[in-house]
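Collaborator request, handled under Task 6.
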Amino acid sequence: MSSAAPTPQVTVLAGPTSVGKSTLSRYIRTTFPQVHFSVSATTRPARPGEVDGEDYLFLSDEEFDRLLEAEAFLEWAVVHQRYRYGTLRSTVDEAQAEGKNVLLEIDLQGARQVRQRLPEAHFVFLAPPTFEDLVRRLTGRGTESAEEQQRRLETARIELAAEPEFDVTIINDDVDRAARELIAQMGIELTTNA
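Structure tokens returned to the collaborator:
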């Protein structure tokens, strides 16, 4: 009699704004195809180069409201006092049913909700080498106004203080190294597309 296969792991990747979560996730997507990403939904407009359904599911406020009413989200939050983001429960459940380990790239509020709903998930905090490095990343990308940058830096200070809530911290000082460390944390064999 064979025992049932273990439920595939859900790994939550969170960290302060501008730490490079999206950059790291894009790198992992192209380099480590064995990782399944749950694409978050958001009410924020797409940035240049972002693809609907690949980077995010870009939803109207009305669509997001309908999904909230249907209790379709595993987690959701208002980020930077402005836009809503969320993870659809169905995308995680479907991937796990297919035997895939799932990576959620979400914010701190979302990570806390997932911890309540999926305490067995593995929680990884992505941190900058220094706070000054985080400021350079945020101001250097030029996608936010000075007012928005200030709001995000205030949020980042709060988010950095939450690091002890996570199972492990990865310093994002080199994308390849950080990606390999995250893959190892997920227990996935390190094979690449190359």
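The cover message to the collaborator said: "The chain is about 40% helix and 20% strand. Residues 10-186 form a domain with the Rossmann fold fold (CATH 3.40.50.300). Please let us know whether this matches your experimental observations."
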